[in-house]
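Bug report

Summary: structure tokens for SCP2 sterol-binding domain-containing protein differ between web form and batch submission.
Environment: batch mode, default settings.
Steps: 1) Submit the sequence below via batch. 2) Compare with the web form result.

Sequence submitted:
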Amino acid sequence: MGVDVKKLFNEELPAALAKNADDAKTIGAKYQLNVTGEGAWNIDVSATGPACKAGEGEADCTITIAAEDFQKLIENPQANGMQLFFAGKLKVAGNQMLAMKLQKLFSYKA
């Protein structure tokens, strides 16, 4: 069974960010994650964060991905991230280098 995307963004990630607040702020960016079929979340890991909330907001890097591809990304971010990107299934707008820092973001545990 895969990851519950809504639970991940609405419960697990906010709790993990709160626990790792100082380290999370070192990422220094705002992300917009749009998971097709699941929803949209705005993640702030800049000096004003950390925060993760449903909806859309200001972002330095916007990522759009289908729910089934997001499952693959969470399972193995390093191997599947580039593969999905080059297949056109992981779309990145804004600062593409920030997309590389997402792996750190999802490595936090509550």
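Above is the batch result. After comparison, the two runs are identical; trailing whitespace caused the diff. The first helix runs from residue 5 to 19. Residues 68 and 90 are 11 Å apart (CA to CA).
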